[in-house]
Every structure is written in C-alpha cells, then in structure tokens.
Amino acid sequence: MSGIGTLSSLPAPLRTAIAPVLARIATSDRGAARERNARTAASRTSHFGSWCKARGFQDLTFAYTGPAEAGAILAAYAQEIAEGNGIVGKQRPHVKTIQNYLRSAVAPAIAQGRHDPRFLRHATDRSGNRLYVPLLDRVFATAKKWTPPSRPERQPITLAMLHYLVTRVGGSSTAEFTSAAAIRDAVILASFTGSRVSEYAQTQASKGSPFNIVPCNAASGVEGGRPLAFIVSDFRFFTASQLELDWKDAAAAHYISVRFRYTKGVHSFTSRMFSHLPDSIFCPVQAAFRAVRRWRLLAPGEDTPVFCFLQAFFSRKPTFLADHHVTKALRIAAEKAHPDARHLVRQHINAISAHSLRVFACLCLQQAGWDEDTISYQLRWNSSAIKHYLRQSVVQVDAIGSSLLKDALVPASPNAKPVVKR
User: In angstroms, rounded to a whole number, what is the distance separating the alpha carbons of residues 166 and 188?
Assistant: First the structure.
C-alpha cells in the first residue's frame, strides 16, 4: 500500500489494529475520474522507473543521491518529457503535464518519507511557495512560455442559438420524449444555473454503468451510488407565496429551488432559487417542470438522472442525456442561428461545448452589472475561473440575454426559508 512502507517500525499490536482501517482507505471508492487520475500517475511513476533503468540509475527513492545530482536527474527527465518523450509521445506538452510527470517520478521517495528532490531545502519565495531546484525550474519556465494555455478556449452561446434550441422541438404528442426536448430543457436550466455539464448530463461513466455516480465511501454516506447529475428530488417547486407544490401542480409554480448535491468544487449540497419568467419560452421553472414530467412518464427507475429521453418512438429503455449530445446540438445551433460562415461564432465553433452554457451565464451576470464575487457565489465558481472566461471570450452576450438571466434569479437570503406544504 502506497505511503505505509515504514510500518515495520511500529509495534505488532498497533500494526494489527490499524491494518483493516488502512485497507479501507486503500480500497475506498474515489470516483471514476480520480481512479483514472491514479492510474495515470502510476503509469508515469513506472515510466520514470524505466527511464532511469535505461540510463543505469537504480536509486528511485533518491536515498543515496545528493540534492544536486537528484535535481540534475529530474531536470534531464523533465526535459525529455518536454521534448515529446512521454508515455504517449505528445509534442509540446503543457507545463502542468510535465510537472505532473515529475510529481509521479518522486512519489516513491515521498512515500518513504524522504525530502522531495524537486525542491530546494528550506527555500520559499515571498508568498511561501517552495522553490524548484534551478535546472528543473529552467525547464518549467521554458515550457510555460511556449506551450498553449492550460484551460481550453470556451466561448459562450448566443441568445439566437438558445432560441433555436428552444423552438426546434416539434409539437407532436411524442416530441416531448425526444432528445431535442431533453436538450432544450437542460440548456435552459443550465443557462440560468451555470451548471457544470456533469450536473445535467453524463460524461465518462464507469464501465457497466449508464450514468456517473457519487463515489461510495464514508464521506459520501447515503449519497454514495446516486447519480452525479440532477435527480427529481433536487427540484422543488413553490407558489408565489413560497408554498411547496407537488410536481403534478408545478406547471403553475412561481419559483423553483435547485439543489446542487455534488459538484466539482466545494459548494456541494447548496441550493439556488429561480423565478418564473411570464410568457417566456426560456422560463427555467417550466424547463424543470417538463424535465420532471418526462422523467416521471418514462420511469427510468428510482434515483436516476432527471434528464432522459427516448432514442426512438419504439424504444423501451430511456437514454440519459450525455455531454456529446449537448455539444453536438450547440454546434448545430451555432450553424443554424448564424448561417454566415464569417460570423464570429462560426469562426470559433470548435470552442462551443457544453461548458459554453456556464460561460454564457457568467457573461450575462457580468453584463447585468454583477461583481465577480457575487457571480462566483451564484454560479459556484472560483474567482480565477471567472476572470479567465471574462477575459477570454471573444463573443459577448447582448443586453437581452443578461436581462433575461437577471430577472429569473432570486437573491439569496439566509433568513428567507420556503414554507413547506403539509
């Protein structure tokens, strides 16, 4: 087990007592994404070991290697990764990729409780950050200067695109069960909530699972095994006087409270309230109601994602909305709403993805006059991400879109609690 190589120095009774607990830590479900990251890190550790062996270096924990020599070895390894000699042979890898290779390379040394040979001993900058050894710092500095941005370009959708997606759903009795209808409602809601794609669609589900789930461990408790994406109980509907409604009566709801159970950041189990938009095709309350009604009628099973549809009229088993469904629909919307290939949106069409809805929400609130701290709270973002997308976006939202979003948001008040109908 990684990180416990010195247990032999502990008394035998203590080793016996804590062994089951350590085993539970090692086998704890961390989620599909973290498991993939762990496998990548292990592959990189093995890659460094093979690299060292090919060059006649055996001291992989740097137990008998001096600081200067260790720094030189790591710098040489980092330089070869920067030159495209990593596991997949990627040319011009990002500096963070190179740094992650080095983090994996020194993992055995750190697991043995040794000094991290990437850094100078007892040396920090003015902000308290540890300083890399000079040769390694030089490799990172060069890579940082000449490699692409760490965050991929993401552009917002436009109101014309949103209008196309909302109005393209047919009027037949079966239209509400199609992917177009599910995408319409997900796109509307995500435009107001600023949701990450995993909150309403599936990304990379574990093998054998139709949707992404919350990891099953001591921390997740009863939430373990539930979908990452919204489930029916995450949506609560209220009247104008804040009386809770049954979902069957939610067509007349004035407010919807959306609970974000499990997010990428630190804002899990938070809620935001949204108001209806009278006579608007973009009403978030109606979008949520339609999604819940569709889920109830299709009946995919308890504790399953709310955004689902039928692949075909004769399908018996519902399909859960996925990120590739949304991205494809958004790019088609870009072409339909902006048919001239010279349009700025068309020139950046590859930067349109499910994440574009989140950027759209951010820009709308900024256009409406909200400051970055308030936007950060409302959308559950960190401030650095907001700054990044505000500066990066070449497509700007119009006043209509920002006004639309602002009108649906209900300011949070710690003392305002909805009255629950008994």
Answer: 8
